[in-house]
Specification:
This is Oxidoreductase, NAD-binding domain protein. By secondary structure, this protein is an alpha/beta fold. The chain contains 9 helices and 15 strands. The relative contact order is 0.15.
Length: about 325
């Protein structure tokens, strides 16, 4: 079977990495790149840098990656759906719920794959964490906690930390927990002099009863990417910056210290760090997209899932504004 002909729209900070991974992924052939701003990072190679999505479609593509700013997603995606082109857009799905809904409906009506680039789902540590949880490794799951903290990224100008960073955690937490959000309560701050929020703390519950908590900001002078899932047998801790996964087991030895023994909880047990094959998550994401197009896999993040995440993100912002918990 011939390779899928792929075009990449937007070859800036994120798009350049998509270009590299399309070129290196078996079964994909990069045939077109487009960016009205030109080839800032010099990744086009022998390809002409096209000016817009229409010219990319005219190049005869089977699939597209959209890595332009979020406000431009809907225009490009609707044109690609109309042309029958399988499409993966970078997260978040769209700038508004109305735009996201239009995109979902357009791709479902066209019968082509519409995906969203939530690359954390392809992180080796989280893939293994989810597999273990699904197999009952933790027993009953009690809570999912995420921490995503770092200094401010100068490249972000059109959204706040909720839509840029927290969207990752909302998606991965629901995926790991195997449930949709039931409610969310959030608080935000504006400390860097911008119109958008730069810090959020959020807590909620999934429909299956699992608790969830998110701590996300651009005000921390170090980078942290942690996901902790606590269950009846212990806790799994994923450091997605390093793709490390560690299990902290509940203690099995009797506690002989009376003051601690009086506490009816768990004690500290053995610690195990998993040995993982660490592949680049973006490469795995492209393979999932390819397999979905070929009908041999369903591990991609669908646009409908991306729309569910958008509902939660908007719920966070509404909660922060009103001071009230939002129910879904």
């Amino acid at each position: 079977m011939a390779d899928l002909r792929v075009g990449v729209l937007g070859i800036g900070s994120m798009g350049r990495h998509h270009v590299r991974n399309v070129r290196e992924t078996e079964g994909l052939e990069l045939v077109a790149v487009a960016d009205p701003g030109g080839d800032k990072f010099g990744v086009a190679g022998d390809l002409e840098v096209l000016p817009d999505v229409e010219s990319m479609i005219a190049a005869g593509i089977d699939a597209a990656v959209v890595a332009v700013p979020t406000v431009y997603h809907v225009d490009a995606a609707l044109k690609l759906a109309e042309a029958g082109v399988h499409t993966m857009v970078e997260k978040p799905l769209a700038a508004t719920l109305e735009q996201g809904t239009a995109m979902v409906e357009a791709f479902e009506a066209a019968g082509v794959i519409g995906a969203v680039g939530y690359v954390e789902r392809c992180n080796p540590a989280l893939l293994e964490m989810r597999r273990l949880i699904a197999e009952g490794f933790l027993g009953e799951v009690y809570q999912v906690v995420t921490r995503r903290q770092s200094p401010f990224p100068a490249r972000i100008s059109d959204v706040g930390v909720v839509k840029d960073l927290a969207t990752h955690d909302v998606d991965l937490a629901a995926w790991v927990a195997g449930s949709e959000y039931d409610s969310i309560y959030a608080q935000t701050t504006f400390r860097s002099g911008r119109e958008f929020e730069d810090m959020v703390t959020a807590s909620g519950r999934f429909k299956n009863g699992v608790l969830v908590n998110h701590l996300v900001n651009w005000l921390t002078p170090f980078k942290e990417r942690m996901t902790v899932v606590t269950g009846e047998r212990g806790a799994l801790v994923a450091d997605t910056a390093m793709s490390d996964l560690t299990f902290y087991a509940n203690g099995t030895f009797p506690v002989e210290w009376d003051q601690i023994a009086a506490f009816r909880g768990v004690s500290e047990g053995e610690v195990k760090r998993f040995a993982l094959v660490k592949r680049e998550p973006l490469r795995v994401e492209h393979e999932h997209f390819r397999d979905a197009i070929l009908g041999v896999g369903s591990e991609h993040v669908s646009m409908r899932e991306g729309l569910q995440t958008m509902h939660v993100i908007e719920g966070m912002l509404e909660s922060a504004k009103t001071g009230q918990s939002v129910k879904f």
